[in-house]
Design brief:
Pfam families: DUF1330. The protein is of the alpha+beta class. It contains three helices and four strands, in the order βαββααβ.
């Protein structure tokens, strides 16, 4: 089953987060991920709003997890940790 990688982000350091984004894009593509939404317009109906929201589609939960645990993505995270506040989840889709 396909899966969605959903991130809600508040960027606190644009320069460092740019380094994260470049490496994360590489890692996501290498694991079969494609972006569905990346920082577009949104309407927050419940919960805490974050100004940046990203959704990527992966072939499976396992592919998305492998991406997260990959060497390239972990390097990307080293730039994001002090440059953002974020939540990230993987959700299996029904189709």
């Amino acid at each position: 089953m396909p899966a969605l990688w959903i991130a809600h982000v508040t960027v606190t350091d644009e320069e460092a987060y740019g380094k994260y984004a470049a490496l994360a894009t590489e890692a996501i593509a290498a694991h079969g991920g494609t972006f569905i939404a990346r920082g577009g317009r949104f309407v927050q109906l419940e919960g805490q709003a974050r100004p940046r929201n990203v959704v990527a589609r992966f072939p499976s939960v396992e592919a998305a997890e492998a991406c997260y645990n990959s060497e390239v993505y972990q390097r990307a995270l080293s730039h994001a940790r002090d440059a953002s506040e974020r939540e990230l989840m993987i959700v299996e889709t029904s189709e």
